[in-house]
Structures are given as C-alpha cells and as structure tokens.
C-alpha cells in the first residue's frame, strides 16, 4: 500500500508540473531579440523565431537554427547569439535563457 501511495505521489507531481508548463516566444525586432533575457522553469517551452538572416546559435555551439525552433535548454543560463550579428558572451545581437527548477508546491506548503 505504501508503494502505491508513493507512486501516486510521483504521478500527481508530474501531472501538476506539466499542467503549469508555460510557453514563451522570443522574436526578432530589427537587430535584437525580444525579450533578450528570459527566465523560465524546467518543463516550459521556448520558441525562437529565427530567420535565415539571423541564424540562432547557442554560445556553446551545441545547437543552431535558421527557422523557428525550440532549442534544447539545460538548467541554468543558456546564452545565445545571432551567428551573423552577435558573438558568444552577450556581444551584439545576443541574449540568455535561464532555466530554473520547476516548483512543485507553493512556498509554505506543509
């Protein structure tokens, strides 16, 4: 019975996390990303409206795209830049997506 209760707890926590997942979009405005810096929770989706003229590249080189894309994001900061008008480290056309741990329960829950 305890195993069932524990398993059910994990299933409910996963469902609650998925129900709270948010969608975010980063768009190109002239020669910048809007918003340039974004904080999301694990499980959220981020779509970047990249174009061939502004190809997106994660600073670590692990991902690039030339059309709308959802980059694979790791926990913590995920800096990115335009391959044509930016550079790693936030130079030029660049930004950062910070992924924070998902919160399963509100503060003060007992």
Characterise the protein shown here:
By secondary structure, the protein is α/β, with parallel strands linked by helices. It has a single domain (22-100), classed as Cupredoxins -  blue copper proteins (Immunoglobulin-like, Sandwich). Helix content is 17%, strand content 42%. The protein is built from one helix and eight strands; from the N terminus they run H-E-E-E-E-E-E-E-E. It has one helix at residues 2-20, and strands at 23-29, 32-34, 37-41, 45-48, 56-58, 64-65, 76-87, 91-100. The strands form two sheets. A five-stranded mixed beta sheet has the order 3-8-7-5-6, with no helix packed on it. It has a three-stranded mixed beta sheet with strand order 2-1-4, with no helix packed on it. The model is unreliable at 5-17 (pLDDT under 50).
